[in-house]
Specification:
There is one protein chain. With 310 residues, the protein is an alpha+beta fold. The chain is built from 5 helices and 15 strands. A 5-stranded mixed sheet has the order 9-8-7-15-10, with helices on one face.
Length: 310
């Protein structure tokens, strides 16, 4: 996918998020005691490695492997904002609850020896978090260049100091192979954001398949709507200036817009002051009160997927 022209951001961004098949065969690091070749790249092997490293919301279960279920309980805060008519303002309530997160963890049974985790293996993929919304899960398909793989690759690239293109290149592939051989598993929760445009419009943050944060939001008006679909966060600011043209031809220049995560061209998650929330008011962005935007922002690193649905 290519970035659309920004509607609330004036700096042009170039780049593509489409992974390509790049056959590679290089040797291990110079001077290594037992260098191992880097296997040729395929999307199917990329799926396997990203799943093994826990950057995907699915697990790879090798043939002859069983699965166990690990249950952990954490305390989280869920914030719900209830909108009243603009004349009366809005109210907020906060509750704390300890949701249970269930994670399926493959347990390997190896009769003899240890297989190289960077080599393609027969097996299957299972959802680690089957409670993720269907509108998000429908994007996943094994061995295809889909947005869930792109987002996972961007997260990996960001974590390892590589350009966050979401596309495969030699440096990224080499580091993926080296990381899975070193068992460098991601310790971060799997975050994704769901934006519902059904009134009252709301945003849910999913962490490891559980909703841990909710707030009312504003999406785009009919003349400048927020597109439905799933997109990776690709650029972030704690504060920035947004400039552009309104549908009526007038210009806007808004300074100090806080807690910004761009996910689709000029559309971003961010804070914005409005008399109320929960209905279309923006030019495509997903607006929320400042405190809620600040709470959400740490959980939308580069590569986090944002699903917008009707």
């Amino acid at each position: 996918m290519s970035f659309r022209k920004a509607r609330c951001w004036t700096v042009a961004v170039a780049g593509a998020l489409v992974a390509t098949t790049v056959p590679l065969l290089v040797t291990g690091a110079a001077g290594a005691a037992h260098p191992r070749a880097i296997p040729a790249y395929t999307i199917r092997l990329e799926d396997q490695i990203l799943a093994e490293l826990r950057y995907l919301p699915v697990s790879f279960v090798a043939a002859g492997t069983t699965s166990t279920t690990t249950t952990t309980t954490t305390s989280t805060t869920t914030t719900t904002t209830t909108t009243a008519p603009p004349s009366t303002g809005s109210t907020s309530t906060t509750t704390t609850a300890p949701p249970t997160t269930t994670t399926t963890v493959p347990t390997r049974r190896r009769p003899t020896g240890t297989k190289d985790p960077a080599l393609l293996q027969p097996g299957s993929f299972v959802w680690r978090f089957p409670t993720l919304p269907a509108s998000f899960r429908q994007n996943w398909s094994v061995g295809t260049d889909n947005v869930i793989v792109q987002g996972a690759l961007m997260r990996f690239q960001d974590d390892h100091g590589l350009p966050t293109t979401g596309s495969m290149d030699g440096s990224t592939w080499r580091l993926l192979v080296e990381t899975v051989r070193a068992r460098g598993f991601s310790s971060e929760p799997y975050d994704m954001v769901l934006v519902s445009q059904t009134l009252p419009q709301r945003l849910d943050l999913y962490q490891n398949g559980r909703v841990t944060f909710t707030t009312l939001v504003n999406t785009g008006i009919s003349a400048s709507p927020t597109a439905n679909g799933t997109y990776p966060v690709y650029l972030r600011f704690t504060s920035t200036t947004m400039s552009g043209t309104n549908p009526n031809g007038t210009k806007y220049h808004d300074t100090g817009i806080p807690w910004v995560s761009y996910f689709n061209g000029g559309d971003a998650l961010h804070g914005f002051i409005r008399p109320g929330y929960g209905y279309p008011q923006s030019l495509g962005c997903v607006e929320m009160p400042f405190p809620e935007a600040k709470t959400l922002w740490p959980h939308t690193p580069i590569g986090t997927l944002v699903t917008v649905q009707p």
